[in-house]
Amino acid sequence: MAEKSKQAILEVENLTKHFNAGRRSVVHAVDGVSFQIRRGKTFGLVGESGCGKSTCARTIIRIYDLTDGSVILDGTDITRMSQKELKPLRRKMQMIFQDPYASLNARMTVRDIIAEPLIAHGIVRRKQDADEIVADMLGQVGLTREHMGRYAHEFSGGQRQRIGIARALVLQPDLLICDEPISALDVSIQAQVINLLRDFQERKNLSYLFIAHDLSMVRYVSDEVGVMYLGQLVERSDSDELYAHPLHPYTRGLLGSIPIANPKEARLREKSGIEGDLPSPINPPAGCRFHTRCPFAKAECSEELPLLRDLGGGHYAACHLAL
Amino acid sequence: MDPVISIENLSVSFQTGSGLVQAVRGISYKLNPGEILGIVGESGSGKSVSSMSILRLLPDTARISDESKIIFGGRNLVSISRKEMREIRGGQIAMIFQDPMSSINPLIPVGKQVGEMISQHQHEKSRGEIQKEVLELFRKVRIPEPEKRIKCYPHEFSGGMRQRVMIAMALANHPKLLIADEPTTALDVTIQDQILKQLRELRREYGTSVIFITHDLAVVAELCDRVEVMYGGLILEEAPIDELFEHPSHPYTMGLMAAIPDLERPRSLPLYPIPGSPPDMTNPPKGCPFQPRCPYARRICASRVPDFISVSEQHASRCFLLDPDAPQDEKNPFKYRKS
């Protein structure tokens, strides 16, 4: 374990989060998810809305308490820590959000937004002392010192996301959790933010947990990718390998649904999408949770839950039929 | 072949607290029968406003200029009465939106709402006939167990299913023209794929012409026959779909294509973002609206809006650099086209 910790910045083991939904019904938002994030690398998490990917992130950062499982951050088990014990560790793990409009306080200037974490963590005593750090941070995200006195509404969506990144990175964390960081942005701006994140990763050896529903973007930014379906990880592998040789029928269907920006290819391709909708996570299907939509499902699939197993070279899939 | 609709010199502006927003600045295009036309653009490009103008679904602060014409069925929709417009809306022209809940009443069972669409426009139909047609529509848009589902309320449906209800509602009166405004943007990729298939099938079956508004070039590639690329309230390029992807002929279109990762791009290559941000339409840039962000911009680009230059028969672009007299130097991306 000690050996492993040297490499992994984050180890998530059997992460489980259930919510009570009244009348003794339980939402199985996340059920037994395990993965590691290597230092300086990006782990991408994909899946349809409601699959539990955001809950996963929020449980890791302890916005929610775990129902079961463990989270080890940089060798320290933070699973049962109180919020007070957790506080010094939060410097190591920061988060950026999807909505750059909702995640910045409209009544604070950019200076105050970026200085706040510095004060909260006792790095500077007064706001004024933070000015140099804030100005430097703004420079690093492609804004300028002149922006310090302005309010969030004076910026475009892409610039606001840059402010969110500056706020998260001013504490010099080791791990940044990115929950759909570009889905609210225009196409021409998305690439700006992605290149900025890549640049930080190279310079600071940052690790990312990158959550998105844009599968092409996830492949592009991630070293490893995990595919979630109804609260469970159904496949996990090196990014290029996963996209080139998807093993789980769900992953295949998901990749087969991506529109391709090439009309001739799009016409030729035999599209292999997925029929039907995501079932409710309140009473998830027995056995393999995907069996209700799986074109290959056999009797055993509705009876026994397939476990995530290594099918060669660190490519894991949870399917009875995958070889 | 007469076009289903033709938009001529459409301009729309809004009076806002921070000044006059020139959302659409004189655009013209035609839609042929049975065609799916994509209108691509980012937020603020004017793509939604221009399509909302067709059905006059604009806020009171909007003003359509006097020179604007929207010719449909021999009439200019800009100048018809409110009553005439009400008859066209949901009848000959129907619209679907990104958020189905914006057009579905949460308090009325979905089957009844679709039925109301029919009775509004086809008064002669009996209740029994309408009921039968609603079931048929639900089947057509592939809502499972339609007999059961017509009695359900919207909240009992998933996002994808609500989108199907909205499509059923739009098709209720066999419209000649369907306007789809980002109908798959809020959906998961698996559901988006199902809805795109659905739209292709409906076009095949009914021959409905579609204006499909989106920010997603890949969706356009999958669905559309022809494309108008909008930016800063103007159409900057128009082309048949294959032409657009093979020979993008405006630096903005080229920029958009370079900024999206496709599944084949090696991960070691950086993405090529378009620098800067989209223009502020209370004070649009002089000349070509893309000029402040364009890597190839020269002095002339800020002098006036470039006219369309024809690239091939149906393909045209507003870029000075396509002019045969433009300098064929390193900073002309179209240099290689000349031989």
Q: What would the principal axes of the Cα set say about the shape of chain A?
A: globular
- Average pLDDT of chain A: 91
- Per CATH, what is the topology of chain A? Rossmann fold
Rounded Rg of chain B: 21 Å
What is the CATH architecture term of chain A?
3-Layer(aba) Sandwich
Low-confidence stretches of chain A: 1-5
Strand order in the largest sheet of chain A: 6-7-8-3-9-10-12-11
Number of strands of chain B: 13
What is the first-to-last residue Cα distance of chain B? 35 Å
Which consecutive residue ranges of chain B, at least 5 long each, have pLDDT under 50? none
Our Rg estimate of chain A from Cα atoms comes to: 21 Å
Number of strands of chain A: 12
Q: What is the total number of structural domains of chain A?
A: 1
Shape verdict of chain B = globular
Q: Largest beta sheet of chain A, briefly?
A: 8 strands, mixed
CATH superfamily of chain A: P-loop containing nucleotide triphosphate hydrolases
Distance between the termini of chain A: 29 Å
Structural class of chain A: alpha/beta
Q: What level of helicity do the residues of chain B show?
A: 25-40%
Please, how many helices of chain A?
A: 11
Question: How does this structure look, described?
Answer:
The complex is a heterodimer of chains A (323) and B (339). The radius of gyration of chain A is 21 Å and the shape is globular. Chain A starts with a helix and ends in a 6-residue tail after the last strand. Chain A has a single domain, classed as 3-Layer(aba) Sandwich (Rossmann fold). The longest helix of chain A has 18 residues. With 323 residues, chain A is α/β, with parallel strands linked by helices. In chain A, the strands form two sheets. In chain A, strands 6-7-8-3-9-10-12-11 form an eight-stranded mixed β-sheet, with helices on both faces. Chain A has a four-stranded antiparallel β-sheet with strand order 2-1-4-5. The N terminus of chain A is likely disordered. Chain A contains eleven helices and twelve strands. With 339 residues, chain B is of the alpha/beta class. Helix content of chain B is 29%, strand content 22%. In chain B, the strands form two sheets. In chain B, strands 7-8-9-3-10-11-13-12 form an eight-stranded mixed β-sheet, with helices on both faces. In chain B, strands 1, 2, 4, 5 and 6 form a five-stranded antiparallel β-sheet that branches. In chain B, helix 3 packs across helix 4 and helix 4 packs across helix 6. Chain B is globular and about 70 Å long. The relative contact order of chain B is 0.13. Classes of the chains: A alpha/beta (323), B alpha/beta (339). The interface between A and B is large, with 45 and 44 residues.
